[in-house]
TrEMBL record:
Keywords carried by this UniProt record: Hydrolase
Keyword Transmembrane on entry: no
UniProt name for this protein: DNTP triphosphohydrolase
Domain HD: 78-271
Composition skew (Basic and acidic residues), residue ranges: 1-18, 30-40
PROSITE patterns for the chain: HD
UniProt keyword Ribosomal protein, yes or no: no
A GO biological-process term: dGTP catabolic process
Location of region: Disordered: 1-40
Organism: Corallococcus exiguus
Matching Gene3D superfamilies: eoxyguanosinetriphosphate triphosphohydrolase domain-like, Hypothetical protein af1432, putative deoxyguanosinetriphosphate triphosphohydrolase like domain
SUPFAM superfamilies attached to this UniProt entry: HD-domain/PDEase-like
Gene Ontology MF, one: dGTPase activity
Cited NCBIfam families: dGTP_triPase
Phylogenetic lineage: Bacteria, Pseudomonadati, Myxococcota, Myxococcia, Myxococcales
């Protein structure tokens, strides 16, 4: 490759690794610059630390990974899954950076490792209680209870896109919203993460309604779901354009190359780790689980496996992850230039047929014997009713034009911070008296009020959601 080609790729990566802090506007003051010089961390490490210290990240300790409300001390939650995915992501990013540098791209490999690690930490931060079952519960409730605009009945939504935001509620879009709006709510951009980190965590950089209301394109992985709500469109466009992502249509972008590494880290962890959890809970045979993980190795191990099955499982899990990481890095590097230009729409694991076959065999087995076990299905069904019940209470109370006595009490239970927005920050600060909750609600559109409710409910842990629903339903009164 010529030096001019290397320079062009280097410039592209400099933009992809943009340290622009989304929502911050022009660069900081001299005082802020001086403070930054005293801080040995780079901007991506600051992103990582901001996620770790956020309350939304801590809440993941009691959110479902696969097995809801597990009584086992061993079973992973969304928190431990995110930490493990972050470790795998750091290895993927750093190794990919080293390989790109060997190709002549001038970059710091550790920056790629840190960005991918931070994005992995945040990739599930928007998940509601009970995981994907919680998403389905919100989608079902909105579809049943709230009419789309133009349906012949009164709708709280001004556009189809607003309705779709909630009718197709998506944890990925909620994650983007948490990072950019719900942390440090009084200022635009929230905690103001770098465009690079936000790009890497965005698996689906597009709105809920595609241009012309067209259907998503089959096989285009970045269109499978959506990644930002209409309420957050300005911040999303700012983040994606700052990194130079290919904008195929207005508001519809190709993925950031590092988003493929984040996805690979997630794919590796949920396949390998969920199988291990299923075995630990006795839902699948420990012997069979060990065999499936050992099949990931390119050749049979020459050493006799440990007699103790738990030790064998731990070794098989570590070796399987250790073999999958370089294979995904190989796929990334082989297709790097297409990824950089936004021309590839296939996951890294799918680009390696042997990896895809191995992971599909593991996930199919776990799905049948673990994900669909009787206990999991029972609790997910209960969670479905829990979230639907909370939405019945809170969502209907905030959109009511003349709330009744019960709805007024429910409004009082929603924290005032739910209704805080940066465009009102100066006005609120200048006010001589505290803003009343009804006044705060009234200045929002019905769509924004509903987002405030989903913000609140998705921020609950599994246990807290159940407890709150039981208390508000009179099943369990406060003691």
């Amino acid at each position: 490759m010529s030096s001019s080609d290397n320079q062009e790729r280097t410039e592209r990566w400099r933009r992809l690794l943009s340290d622009t802090r989304v929502g911050s506007g022009p660069r900081s003051s001299q005082a802020e610059d001086a403070h930054r010089q005293l801080d040995e961390r780079n901007d991506y490490s600051r992103d990582y630390d901001r996620i770790v210290f956020s309350s939304e990240f801590r809440c993941l300790h009691d959110k479902t990974q696969v097995f809801p409300l597990s009584t086992s001390d061993y079973t992973r939650t969304r928190l431990t899954h995110s930490i493990e995915a972050s470790c795998v992501g750091r290895s993927l990013g750093h190794q990919a950076g080293l390989r790109l540098k060997l190709q002549g791209v001038e970059l710091d490999p550790s920056h790629l490792g840190t960005i991918v690690a931070a994005a992995c930490l945040a990739h599930d931060i928007g998940n509601p209680p009970f995981g994907h079952s919680g998403e389905a519960a919100i989608q079902h409730w909105v579809g049943q209870r709230l009419a789309p605009p133009g349906a012949g009945t009164k709708s709280p939504f001004a556009t189809e896109a607003e309705w779709r935001d909630l009718c197709d509620f998506e944890g990925n879009a909620q994650g983007f919203r948490i990072l950019n709006r719900l942390q440090s709510r009084e200022r635009r951009g929230g905690l103001r993460y770098t465009a690079a980190t936000l790009g890497a965590m965005s698996k689906y950089p597009r709105p809920s309604v595609l241009p012309g209301s067209r259907q998503k394109t089959k096989g285009v992985v970045s269109e499978k779901k959506f990644g930002y709500f209409q309420d957050d469109v300005d911040l999303a466009l700012e983040a994606y354009r700052a990194t130079g992502l290919r904008e195929r249509e207005p508001g519809v972008f190709s993925r950031h190359p590092l988003a493929f590494l984040v996805e690979a880290a997630d794919d590796i962890c949920y396949a390998v780790i969920d199988l291990e959890d299923s075995a630990k809970l006795g839902l699948v045979s420990m012997e069979r689980a060990c065999q499936l993980l050992e099949s990931v190795l390119p050749e049979p191990t020459v050493r006799k496996p440990p007699r103790h099955l738990e030790t064998r499982m731990a070794q098989a899990r570590a070796r399987a992850i250790g073999k999958l990481i370089p294979k995904c890095v190989d796929a990334f590097v082989e297709h790097a230039q297409d990824l950089e230009a936004g021309r590839t729409e296939t996951s890294l694991t799918a680009l390696k047929p042997d990896v895809r076959a191995q992971l599909e065999e593991i996930t199919d087995f776990t799905r049948e014997h673990g994900y669909w076990s009787e206990r999991v299905l029972q609790i997910e069904s209960a969670g479905f009713k829990t979230l639907g019940g909370l939405l019945d209470m809170f969502a209907l109370s905030v959109v009511a034009e003349s709330p009744n006595a019960e709805e007024k009490k429910l409004r009082q239970l929603l924290p005032m911070e739910c209704f805080q927005r940066p465009e009102f920050a100066a006005e609120d600060e200048a006010a001589q008296k505290p803003l009343r909750r009804d006044e705060a609600i009234q200045r929002l559109t019905p769509y924004q009020r509903l987002l405030c409710v989903t913000d609140y409910i998705t921020g609950l842990s599994d246990s807290r959601a159940v407890e709150l629903y039981q208390r508000l339903s009179g099943i369990q009164l406060p003691t």
